[in-house]
């Protein structure tokens, strides 16, 4: 096995989600467990990265609720990967990045970024 991850990746926590999902509560429960793990021993969670719509399998994540939970738990920043949601969902009031090369048939170099001034 080749392990070559750099420090920031080694410190990350991946949240496994059950599939198929029976309710949004399953996602909320797993996120809360992961945040608790990340905050263990007096540590803090500096960044949460959340997919808005996962790629495989396709699941719409209720990111507004998760962002609220992250804020309540003291997460420094929340980044939403909204690549698959362009044209499907409105812009969230948070930091998100989208790309339109799949949905709008644009060039690969045509991403867009949204940053709420409150962040």
Mean pLDDT: 75
Radius of gyration: 15 Å
Low-confidence stretches: none
SSE run: HHEHEEE
Helix content: 10-25%
Classify the secondary structure makeup into a structural class: alpha/beta
User: Could you tell me how far the N terminus lies from the C terminus, measured between alpha carbons in angstroms?
Assistant: 39 Å
What spatial form do the alpha-carbon principal axes imply? globular
Major sheet attributes: 4 strands, mixed
Strand count? 4
Order of strands, widest sheet: 1-2-3-4
**Residues in β-strands, percent:** 15-25%
Q: Total helix count?
A: 3
Task: Explain how this protein is built.
- The chain is an alpha/beta fold.
- The chain has helices at residues 7-10, 24-38, 63-72; strands at residues 47-51, 77-81, 95-99, 111-114.
- The chain has a domain at 44-119.
- It has three helices and four strands; from the N terminus they run ααβαβββ.
- A four-stranded mixed beta sheet has the order 1-2-3-4, with helices on one face.
- The termini are far apart.
